[in-house]
Amino acid sequence: MNTVPQFKLNNGEEMPAAGIGCWMGTVGDSRQVTEMVLTALRLGYRHIDTASNYGNELSVGQAIRESNVPRSEIYLVTKLSSEDHGRPEKALEYSLNRLGVDYVDLYLMHWPQAFDVDHGRYCLPEDSPTFIESWKMMENLVETGKTRSIGVSNFSIKNLDILLKHARIIPVTNQVEMHPYLPQHDLLAYCSSRGILLTAYAPVGKHKFATNPSVLEIAQRNNVSVAQVLLGWGVKRGTAVIPKSTHETRLKENLTLVSLEDEDMQILDNLHRQSGMHHSVCGFHSSELGGSCFGWTYAQLGWDMIEGGIMRS
Ligand SMILES: NC(=O)c1ccc[n+]([C@@H]2O[C@H](COP(=O)([O-])OP(=O)(O)OC[C@H]3O[C@@H](n4cnc5c(N)ncnc54)[C@H](OP(=O)(O)O)[C@@H]3O)[C@@H](O)[C@H]2O)c1
């Protein structure tokens, strides 16, 4: 069985550096989700990333029970959806019931923006509940023991700066899209200096690096796969990685972390500087969204974009 390194969080808890992502591309429970998580647990994964609005917490919980892996050995993450910003306690209770567990290891605010269900629209940054108000309610959840840690997701330096001025608890992690096309070096430096671990989502870039000549060359020279190059880069730069795969061979590959030489790290660090390369593969930071994402402009989100869905820095 693979030994995955652990990252020490700012509250003393430990998170396995590699986990299984459970966003399936569509919302909902399915036997496929249960089988994927079961296979992952059998292969040695001990970090599971899901979310209330993936709609598959029941299937994830089913896999945990069927696996017979003790709950205490699993690092389980779920997320507060935008609709629930005004009621994190209720939302966490709902997630725990669906997962069939007494606690999660980490509860993340999925996005900084709240969604106003009554009016069917996203709230503006200054409208209540602001992310500061929601964070304060999340802070109270740690005392209940229903989550061991709290963190954020899709937070920029700008919004972390605002949050940290009011936070009693520093987020243990910020989960963001991160791979060599969107390395977010500035955000990594900012979070590292404040004790916030970054967790990279879409860490194998949704397999869009398969034809990139630089990444292919590194993979061939090291006799590993493209995904292993990307995950090795992610972990070596100090970020947790949560790739998703429904294929056993890929799941195994993704958990077999490789250590890259410094010169390969540098090539990957600089890949985004090549013309047209600096972009999101998830479509969140994308010109297709017309300058905004889930109701907030890029400026409100703190994303520095130029034309064509390309990031500036
Ligand atoms: N916080 C957020 O807002 C947010 C947003 C997006 C994602 N996430 C989390 O991050 C996780 C990962 O992100 P993601 O699923 O979007 O992207 P990803 O893990 O980079 O890519 C997943 C895709 O790559 C393929 N793949 C995985 N490993 C592979 C390998 N070794 N070789 C070839 N292809 C491989 C998978 O196909 P197969 O399944 O067919 O193998 C799947 O199509 C999600 O599942 C979710 O938990 C969080």
Automatic annotation (TrEMBL):
Keyword NADP: yes
Source species, domain of life: Eukaryota
Keywords: NADP, Oxidoreductase
Active-site residues, record numbering mapped to chain: Y54 (proton donor)
One Pfam family recorded for the sequence: Aldo_ket_red
One of the record's GO molecular function terms: oxidoreductase activity, acting on the CH-OH group of donors, NAD or NADP as acceptor
InterPro entries xrefs: AKR (IPR020471), Aldo/ket_reductase_CS (IPR018170), NAD(P)_OxRdtase_dom_sf (IPR036812), NADP_OxRdtase_dom (IPR023210)
Xref: CDD domains: AKR_AKR1-5-like
Site (Lowers pKa of active site Tyr): K79
Amino acids binding substrate: H110
Every NADP-dependent oxidoreductase domain range: 29-271
Record bears the keyword Oxidoreductase: yes
Family as reported in the entry's similarity comment: Belongs to the aldo/keto reductase family.
Protein name: Aldo/keto reductase
Native organism: Lentinula aciculospora
